[in-house]
Recover the amino acids of this structure.
């Protein structure tokens, strides 16, 4: 398909200082969890985004000084001469596809962890530095200021020598440059505090010094924060940084900067989830930077639609479409736009599972793109699937995220006969009903992308409304069976630490409901409802919001000290709690429900004292259970399998263990890639990385 001419504007080159970006797709710096610790994984992860057509591809935060040490988080440290070669691998991988490579040079100041270096944190002012990791920061002397600036310059030199085209003087997200700029964190009375010009001096001097050293060779980018929406918790801007002041700084620094990279508010706002922030919610703020500069501007907006991207460029407010999460979800978005393959774009769900995984020191991952982070260690490519010579017919039972993903991968690999059988009339598994809950609509993109893919794969036949029994499977004529029958919520009150059914908890009674029952339309017999939540993520709050909107008097009783602690890992905890508060939902923290009757729930509070809440009904968001009966029945009788010509039966997704949707997708994907290995039931071992990139490549 040819490109839609309306999208041609996205493929115009953009000059930034001494460099030219080949198009307007720009992968902004974002954490990957690879840093310089896993240089090959970093290189493969960024390289595939360049291959997919992103014209600029940036690496995450690269602290310029040892007193900006992020451990336990993983950063791309560049404070020592040996740090360059690790990053050179990444710059080369990006260049191999004609893109420009950027590096986020940063100093965290008072926000640094310094867990490894054991150096004191540094800040413009001690009193205003805030307590973190058990102590206050050192107030920077003039010598410290000069030293950090020299570190920045040396780091910029190393970055250029490593092949980077764009170096950042990064001030967003409350790092050291912002700490100097904000009067709340800068109480200095010398030339670096007080007036706007003084508070901006450290930033401007650093820009000038970096420009002096590498300006002719590299483009200089700086990332600023403008105000966010004052009505949204966690989004009301960075403390003390006002938009008018920031615009004044942009005007003052303009001649030193080749690319303005603009964010809003604090990170939970800038990377707000789709549950609470629509695409492009930052526009009223970020687009104001154009008032102060004619230089190229990039801003993010979790844009997934090329129509919207082109429209935004046409406004003239920004020159580049910045993206982190969409580039994780679909590294090949630009190429798909260029080739008019719009229905193949894997749209980001905005669930921030990438952030949850990476920020909690897991391998980065994505609910839409199972290959994210697996480019090097598993050798997975988002668009290339090792072809198979295996022509055995495969039956996939269960059309949830795991079964759909597995069938898509099998179809793309060239399996000639794949049948995907789903009991319900619609594909999607648990997402069929989750996507209909308040705020969770965009998660349905996981189903939509796979449904479109399946419709285009002629070798895959989808059969819906067909619940297969053991007998059906044995008679089906398949040689390989994948059981992806998922999980369901328990209706008996079994919960973590309490493996016995809860007295009175029986979802056959009208006053006891499971999440599935609520979504199927069942309601408690009276107005007062307790949602009992030991799950800690989205399900309890979403059901509470649904019922509150219908006029029920809803309280969430949670075992945790805060409502939905998992949502803090996806950056949406504060917003979620405010949202529910405004929806009129009450919360009881730290309670364990141990019994239910038709007029109350009973249990203990966090101190072990008795606790009771009167109610007309309870929704149990306690624990899920794998629906693996079909797998157990099939594998219990190997001779019946042999007679039926079934060589292998595999179990994937929630039917193995109920997990995040991203993990069910990953599981289905993994099996699809490895199903023709001799021992496909066991995941193949992945490559581990030795830290020395100059050494011989590790072998699998
Ligand atoms: P996962 O996330 O692991 O894909 P889900 O629970 O979301 O799990 O989806 C499992 C799907 O399997 C559901 O759509 C369910 O209707 C379907 N299913 C369960 N048992 C059978 C069966 N015996 N035959 C066909 N489909 C089934």
């Amino acid at each position: 398909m040819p490109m839609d001419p309306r999208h041609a504007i996205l493929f115009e080159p953009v000059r930034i200082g001494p460099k030219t970006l080949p198009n307007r797709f720009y992968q902004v710096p974002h954490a990957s969890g690879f840093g310089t610790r896993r240089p090959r994984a970093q290189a493969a992860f960024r390289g595939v985004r360049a291959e997919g057509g992103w014209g600029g591809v940036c690496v995450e935060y690269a602290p310029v000084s040892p007193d900006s040490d992020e451990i336990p988080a993983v950063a791309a440290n560049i404070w020592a001469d040996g740090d360059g070669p690790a990053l050179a691998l990444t710059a080369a991988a990006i260049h191999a596809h004609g893109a420009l490579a950027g590096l986020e040079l940063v100093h965290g100041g008072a926000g640094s962890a310094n867990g490894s270096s054991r150096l004191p944190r540094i800040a413009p002012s001690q009193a205003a530095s805030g307590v973190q990791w058990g102590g206050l920061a050192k107030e920077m002397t003039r010598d410290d200021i000069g030293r950090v600036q020299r570190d920045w310059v040396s780091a910029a030199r190393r970055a250029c020598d490593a092949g980077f085209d764009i170096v950042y003087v990064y001030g967003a997200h409350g790092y050291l440059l912002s700490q100097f700029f904000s009067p709340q964190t800068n109480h200095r009375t010398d030339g670096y505090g007080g007036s706007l010009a003084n508070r901006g001096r450290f930033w401007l001097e650093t820009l000038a010094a970096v420009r002096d050293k590498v300006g002719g060779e590299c483009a200089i980018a700086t990332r600023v924060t403008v105000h966010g929406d004052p009505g949204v918790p966690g989004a009301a801007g960075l403390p003390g940084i006002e938009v008018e002041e920031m615009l004044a700084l942009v005007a003052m620094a303009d001649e030193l900067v080749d690319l303005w990279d603009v964010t809003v508010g604090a990170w939970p706002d800038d990377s707000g989830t789709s549950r609470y922030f629509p695409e492009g919610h930052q526009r009223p703020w970020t687009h104001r930077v154009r008032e102060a500069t004619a230089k190229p501007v990039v801003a993010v907006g979790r844009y997934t639609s090329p129509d919207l991207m082109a429209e935004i460029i046409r406004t003239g407010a920004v020159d580049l479409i910045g993206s982190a999460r969409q580039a994780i979800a679909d590294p090949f978005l630009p190429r798909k736009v260029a080739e008019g393959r719009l229905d193949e774009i894997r749209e980001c769900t905005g669930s921030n599972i990438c952030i949850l995984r990476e920020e909690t020191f897991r391998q980065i991952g994505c609910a839409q793109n199972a290959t994210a982070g697996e480019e090097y260690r598993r050798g997975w490519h988002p668009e290339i699937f090792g072809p198979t010579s295996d022509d055995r017919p495969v039956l996939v039972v269960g059309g949830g995220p795991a079964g759909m993903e597995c069938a898509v991968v099998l179809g793309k690999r060239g399996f000639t006969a794949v049948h995907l059988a789903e009991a319900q009339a619609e594909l999607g598994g648990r997402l069929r009903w989750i996507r209909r809950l308040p705020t969770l609509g965009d998660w349905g993109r996981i189903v939509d992308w796979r449904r479109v893919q399946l419709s285009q794969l002629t070798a895959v036949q989808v059969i819906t409304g067909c619940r297969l029994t053991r007998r059906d499977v044995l008679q089906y004529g398949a040689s390989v069976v994948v059981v992806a029958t998922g999980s369901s919520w328990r209706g008996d009150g079994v919960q973590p630490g309490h493996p016995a059914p809860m007295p009175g908890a029986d979802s056959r009674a009208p006053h006891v409901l499971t999440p599935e029952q609520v979504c199927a339309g069942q309601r408690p017999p009276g107005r007062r409802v307790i949602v009992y939540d030991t799950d800690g993520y989205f399900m309890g709050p979403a059901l509470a919001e649904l019922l509150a909107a219908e006029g029920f008097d809803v309280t969430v009783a949670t075992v945790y000290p805060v409502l939905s602690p998992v949502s803090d890992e996806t950056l949406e905890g504060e917003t979620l709690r405010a949202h529910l508060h405004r929806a009129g939902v009450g919360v009881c923290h730290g309670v364990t429900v141990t019994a239910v009757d038709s007029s109350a729930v009973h249990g203990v509070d966090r101190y072990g004292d008795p606790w009771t809440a009167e109610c007309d009904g309870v929704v149990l968001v306690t624990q899920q259970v794998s629906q693996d009966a079909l797998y157990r029945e099939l594998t219990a009788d190997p001779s019946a399998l042999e007679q039926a010509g079934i060589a292998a039966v595999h179990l994937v997704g929630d039917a193995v263990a109920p997990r995040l949707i991203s993990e069910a997708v990953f599981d289905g994907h993994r099996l699809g890639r490895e199903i023709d290995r001799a021992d496909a039931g066991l995941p193949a071992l992945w490559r581990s990385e030795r830290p020395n990139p100059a050494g011989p490549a590790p072998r699998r």
Q: What stands out?
A: The chain has a mean pLDDT of 94. Residues 5-117+146-361 form a domain with the TIM Barrel fold (CATH 3.20.20.70).
